[in-house]
Each structure stands twice: as structure tokens, then as C-alpha cells.
Automatic annotation (TrEMBL):
Domain (Response regulatory): residue spans on this chain: 7-123
Catalytic activity: 2 GTP = 3',3'-c-di-GMP + 2 diphosphate
One GO process term, biological-process aspect: negative regulation of bacterial-type flagellum-dependent cell motility
Protein name, per record: diguanylate cyclase
Pfam families: CBS, GGDEF
Domain CBS: 321-377
GO MF term set: diguanylate cyclase activity
Length: 467
């Protein structure tokens, strides 16, 4: 099973507490989300699916958060663990918090070290509960088996198929844009209506489970991938043509569908389950309201559309550079070089020769180690004349190869001798890493603006250049 950071939802009317605590939890490699009131908390429980919720009991309607039915509707674990922050640890307060739905309490004043210990204890408890839930649990609302039940049934069907020589297929349905229905009972009603349509088309040997809130899985024993695909496509069309009741309105909806079979996945239940999820994700990324099976993925590969190796085709060094907006003349005194690095928080700056061409670069280390000690120097004496450089039209693959063959931490990008910017080894590392979910913070108020690039063209600053 793929590991991920623990997701923690903080609920408090104290916005300073939310900011400080979220920052601490993020530093501890936890995913922290915040809500300033009970309504926001309810939405976050539905959309973020936190593993743990920490509720300040001074929050209006804090009890509604602790007793929210959404705590029992997590898609991958038994329930959402709750810690209440109380004004005191008196027996009365402790009893009220635990009776109100909390699993643990922390009295004020809150200490981050104690909070971290309690969170780790909660994680251990959740792990035990989740293992039991995946193994034998059933979803309380619909009565359908969860992902643990699905895997157990899948193993049974695969064992039978190994004896008979027949195929086993798995179809996974996902309601497109499910969050638009909001965290209210109306969403459960939508899922019930979709379930009814699917059930009406199921053969007696088919079995249905609900691995997550907005997904339904159907096992098709003795069915090939093509047969499962055809069956799923007919249901997709039926759902797209049907009318659904939500609150007091009638609406249309669609489903994305993934199809996998033992013939292309092998006799291991977990591999079949991973394949069907991959195909569902393919269907969703294709625009939704679509059925994806192995054939669609193979067609995409044949067309070259899913080749990860072509991700940066056509990309040049000019596309990935960090633009430079401070340029130093070779005659710039050391004092001005030091001031420029401090004022603009530079790591590296280009130096221009008398013809205003790239003559090399000065790094922060040089400024700190040499310029500060020898202020009578000029940029010409501080510059690294052999600083590595590449043309702006060089391909991305050439850039990668250069870094792989040379130990340099940074390369200057020039256009016919004119410096445009720099690319560091760290920049390439960031491009190769998966995008972190924290990059999509709902509120960017607390994110330093220095983390964002200036889209508009910056004002060029030339130090020591002749007028």
C-alpha cells in the first residue's frame, strides 16, 4: 500500500492558532488543513478526507464537528480520529469531550510537543482500526462491502478462475465531479440512485462493493475484458441519459469507468485492483463520462500520447531558466556587488565585459568569502570567467546530460553572448519530483511571495554600467 502523510484538520476560531499549528504540523511532514468554523469543518471533512481532526471546544457548534456523520464516511479508513482541545483537564470537561465524540483531549495551554505525541498515538490507533476495517468492514450507509471486502471477494473469484480457466473482470465506477453535491445527505441519495441503475443491469453472479464514498465496484466472474467493457459502456450510457433527484431539483450526471481483467492483470487481486484504478484515472483524465480498458491504454501508448519520456519534448533551456534581472559590469566595485546581492537576495549574478557580453558570473559564496574581505576589488577580479554556460536554444535533454556529466551546481543560459538567466541542479530536481499537494493551498495568504516567479517582465538593473 502506498504510504502518504497523515492528513490533519484543525478547527478553531483562533486564526493565529490555526496558522501557527498548521505551520508546525507541516514542518513535521503532516498535511494540515484549517477551518475557522463548524461549516468549514464539515466541508473539509467531506472534501479533504482528513485522518484526524483537532477541534477547539471554543469553536461555536464544536459538538457538531465531533459528532459529524462525515467522520464515519472516510473512503480508506474506519473513521476520522478526533482530539478535543479543552479549557481544563477537570473530570467534567474530560467527560463532556469524550461523551461528545472526542477520542482524546488536550487541555490548554497547548504544547506542540504534547500535540505531536498525541497525534502519533492517534496514528497507531488508526492503523489498527484501518486494518480491521479493510479486512472485514462494511460501509454503514449502503451496506456494501468496502475495499477490504472487495479484495477478499476478488481473491475468491481468482482462485475459482484458476481452477476453471475462466477470466475475472472488475469494473470501477466513479461519479464525475461528486463534490459539487456538497456534504449533505443529498449526495448519499445520488449514490443510491446510481447503485440502483447498476444493480438493475447486474447478472446474479455479479457482486458489488463500495470502495470509497463516490465509487462503486462490480466483480464480473466468468467475463472477459471485452464483455466487461461492453457491459460498462451500456451502463455509462444509461446513467448519462437518466434523471437524478438532488434536493428539490432534477439533474444529469455522468460516471467515469475503469475496466480490468485477470487476463491482462494476472491472478493477484491487488494487481487487478491497481490496474482498474489506473484505468479509472485514465478515464477521468480523458474528460470523464468515459470507459477505459486495456485497449484504450494500448491505443494511447501506440499514439505516443502517454509516453512520459516525451514530456519535455520541444523544451529548451530558455523555457526552464530563472531570469536574471541584475547584471554587473566588470568595473563594478566590490561594495556595489555586495549591496546588489544583499538588496536583491541573489545567489548568482552575471558579469558583462566591455562589449556587454557574458564574461562569467559571481556567486554568493564568492561575495561572502572574498568581496567582504577585499572591498578594494572589482567584479572583474571576483568573476568566475569559466562559469559554465549554454545557449538558450539548447534542448532540455542536453541540459540534463550536461548536469549528469559535470559536477557544477548551476549553468548560465545565454543568447549569442547575452546572459538571460540561470538553471541550477536543484531546479531540475524540482522538475522531476511529483507535485506536492501543499502547492495547492486553499489560502495563499501565509505563503511568502518570494516563492512565486514574476510573470511580468522585471526591470533590469545594471550595476556599474556606463550611462
Amino acid at each position: 500500500m502506498q504510504r502518504r502523510p497523515l492528513r490533519v484538520l484543525l478547527v478553531s476560531p483562533d486564526r493565529s492558532f490555526l496558522r501557527r499549528t498548521a505551520e508546525f504540523l507541516s514542518a513535521c511532514r503532516l498535511e494540515a488543513y484549517v477551518a475557522a468554523d463548524a461549516d468549514q469543518a464539515e466541508w473539509a471533512l467531506a472534501s479533504r478526507e482528513p485522518d484526524l481532526v483537532i477541534v477547539d471546544t471554543n469553536t461555536p457548534r464544536a459538538a457538531a464537528v465531533l459528532q459529524s456523520p462525515r467522520r464515519d464516511q472516510h473512503s480508506t479508513q474506519a473513521y476520522v480520529y478526533a482530539i478535543a482541545i479543552t479549557d481544563s483537564d477537570s473530570p467534567e470537561r474530560v467527560f463532556d469531550a469524550l461523551a461528545g465524540g472526542a477520542d482524546d483531549i488536550i487541555p490548554r495551554p497547548l504544547r506542540f510537543t504534547e500535540l505531536l505525541v498525541r497525534i502519533r498515538a492517534a496514528a497507531r490507533s488508526l492503523e489498527v482500526e484501518s486494518r480491521l476495517h479493510r479486512r472485514v468492514g462494511r460501509r454503514s450507509g449502503s451496506g456494501l462491502g468496502n475495499s477490504g471486502v472487495l479484495l477478499r471477494l476478488l481473491r475468491e473469484d481468482l482462485r475459482d478462475a484458476a481452477t476453471t480457466g475462466n477470466e475475472v473482470s472488475l469494473v470501477l465506477f466513479d461519479v464525475d465531479y461528486a463534490l459539487r453535491f456538497g456534504p449533505d445527505p443529498g449526495f448519499d441519495r445520488i449514490v443510491e440512485q446510481v447503485t440502483t441503475i447498476i444493480r438493475s443491469e447486474m447478472l446474479p453472479t455479479y457482486r458489488m462493493c463500495q470502495p470509497s464514498v463516490d465509487q462503486l465496484a462490480v466483480l464480473l466472474p466468468n467475463s472477459t475484458s471485452d464483455e466487461a467493457y461492453q457491459w460498462a459502456e451500456e451502463i455509462r450510457q444509461t446513467i448519462a441519459a437518466a434523471d437524478f433527484q438532488h434536493a428539490d431539483s432534477t439533474l444529469k450526471l455522468s460516471v467515469s469507468v475503469g475496466v480490468a481483467a485477470s487476463a491482462d492483470s494476472g491472478p493477484i487481486a491487488e494487481e487487478l485492483w491497481e490496474n482498474v484504478q489506473e484505468r479509472l484515472e485514465f478515464a477521468k483524465k480523458s474528460g470523464g463520462n468515459f470507459v477505459a480498458s486495456l485497449r484504450q491504454l494500448q491505443n494511447e501508448d501506440a499514439a505516443g500520447g502517454s509516453s512520459h519520456g516525451r514530456l519535455f519534448d520541444g523544451t529548451t533551456t530558455a523555457d526552464v531558466l530563472r531570469p536574471t534581472f541584475v547584471q554587473l559590469a566588470s568595473t563594478t566595485p566590490a561594495d556595489e556587488v555586495i549591496a546588489a546581492f544583499a538588496k536583491h537576495d541573489l545567489d548568482v549574478a552575471p558579469v558583462l565585459d566591455a562589449q556587454r557580453k557574458f564574461a562569467g558570473a559571481i556567486t554568493r559564496d564568492v561575495v561572502q568569502n572574498r568581496a567582504v574581505r577585499s572591498r578594494e576589488l572589482t567584479a572583474a577580479e571576483l568573476v568566475d570567467a569559466n562559469f559554465p554556460q549554454m545557449e538558450s536554444n539548447a534542448s532540455f535533454s542536453e541540459l540534463v546530460n550536461y548536469f549528469s556529466e559535470h559536477p557544477t551546481p548551476c549553468v548560465a543560459i545565454v543568447d549569442r553572448g547575452k546572459p538571460l538567466g540561470f538553471v541550477s541542479r536543484d531546479d531540475l530536481a524540482l522538475l522531476s519530483e511529483p507535485i506536492d499537494s501543499t502547492s495547492y493551498a486553499e489560502s495563499r495568504d501565509d505563503i511568502p511571495t518570494t516563492e512565486f516567479y514574476v510573470v511580468s517582465r522585471p526591470l533590469m538593473v545594471e550595476m556599474g554600467a556606463e550611462a
